[in-house]
Fold this sequence. Notes:
The complex is a heterodimer of chains A (277) and B (248).
Chain A: H1 15-43, H2 49-56, H3 58-91, H4 97-103, H5 106-109, H6 112-123, H7 131-136, H8 145-171, H9 174-181, H10 186-214, H11 218-224, H12 234-243, H13 247-276
Helix pairs in contact in A: 1-13, 2-13, 3-8, 3-10, 6-8, 6-11, 8-10, 8-11, 9-10, 10-13, 12-13
Chain B: H1 2-20, H2 23-32, H3 34-67, H4 74-86, H5 89-100, H6 114-139, H7 143-150, H8 155-183, H9 187-192, H10 203-212, H11 216-247
Amino acid sequence: MxxxxxxxxxxxxxxxxxxxxxxxxxxxxxxxxxxxxLVGRNAFADGTTDIQAILDDPDIVHxxxxxxxxxxxxxxxxxVFGVGISILLVRYTFPGRRLLNALLDVPLSVSPIVxxxxxxxxxxxxxxxxxxTLQNAGIQIIFATPGIVLATVFVALPLVIREVVPVLExxxxxxxxxxxxxxxxxxxTFRRITLPAIKWGVIYGVVLSLARSLGExxxxxxxxxxxxxxxxxxxxxxxxxxxxxxxxxxxxxxxLLALVAVACIIVVSVIRPKDQR
Amino acid sequence: xxxxSLLVLIPLTAVIVTASGNGWVEFWRAVTNEQTAAxxxxxxxxxxxxxxxxxxxxxxxxxxxxxxxxxxxxxxLEVLIDIPFALPTIVAGLVLLSLYGPDSPLGVNIANTxxxxxxxxxxxxLPFVVRTVQPxxxxxxxxxxxxxxxxxxxxxxxxxxxxxPSLTPAxxxxxxxxxxxxxxxxxxxxxxxxxxxxxxxxxxxxxxxxIENDNLESAAAVAAVLLAISFVVIVAVDVIQRRVVRRG
Lengths: 277, 248
């Protein structure tokens, strides 16, 4: 890299260096660090009673379990399809590839409420396009767990793909071709050559999807129906508790969610440098 | 591919079809409804302002993270940047409420005002410009800067003439993403902004209340507007990135 021999242009510690550092740190502390810290403190304002109360409430425990279950299903689905679509995008050319590539970003930039609405319009029990048919077959999607899973998969869809695609592009396909010319079939090539190469990208994407899936709120709110003890997820509990003036409960649940989110980021930031080296 | 269609394409098509189902006139009436128009205006306006702030602050943050030497807490700053991305949005709202809400230790209470909307957008869009500018800044060749400095250019001139032009595409892409994210924000506002019609109600909330009133057509109409905005942004980012790649 450039920092080897030549003397740096701006190694000197000028006042402006400190000023910039101060502004940036101050901004981040006021916007992120301090508020997040306060949630932790509020959650433990009465010692561990609030956390305890939450873990004793069967409805909330159910909500937490549901959230974890949905997140795991969503992550598995997104990983399988994410890797598949990534390989499709990088290794094959087909008409509409660029369009597909652009469409894959839609879930990241579209409002979760719109996502929920879109799913209701198609899979809604009474008026949706496929809803009545599915309902007659005994499958309910909206206002039930499958709907929550669909919504979660939707919002977290691009994360694995966006991590895997650049890695795949960088690795190139020479080794894959070599393996194939030596007689390996598609599955062997994928398992022995491709998968080890993209391993870190996949893991990174999985962690990000997990964080996103656990925390999805808007889309889930629209499709879940928010039935206590059945389709209420952890993020919906936070809203409900807060609006019912149970601040302690809201902060405690929020703290649990925030804890997982921060843990995910730290895992990622530990993985990432290793990946780059 | 079939999976992708079932999950993404067909539902999004359904939004468009439902939005246009009652004809152009109905669509236009739903979108220009006084309350809806106010919500769209607030959302887009605030997202725009927030994007401007992000362009300045995001570039500064990326600069400190890449160019400044190691100092105490720098790694912590790295982690802080990603928190808004990973934190559930509803928790993000609660988080901001704890510092800037009714029980604020700072004594500022912005809950239920438009400032709250601004702040929430600022929080959730924080990572975008930083994370798009950072890699470009890391890769940037220092030689041109050194040459400029040896020719007597001031630090400001170097930044404006040498560094900024190389960063512009990254900044633009980050800005577009942060604008799209701002426009579509919902979760963090539920607790923070109070969702007062005509004052702090954003577009997503407006759509949700239409859904809850079982008025799916007008919900779809407003949703189509949001979809259009996000699609324009995606295309813009795509074009910007292609141009960068071509320039090599």
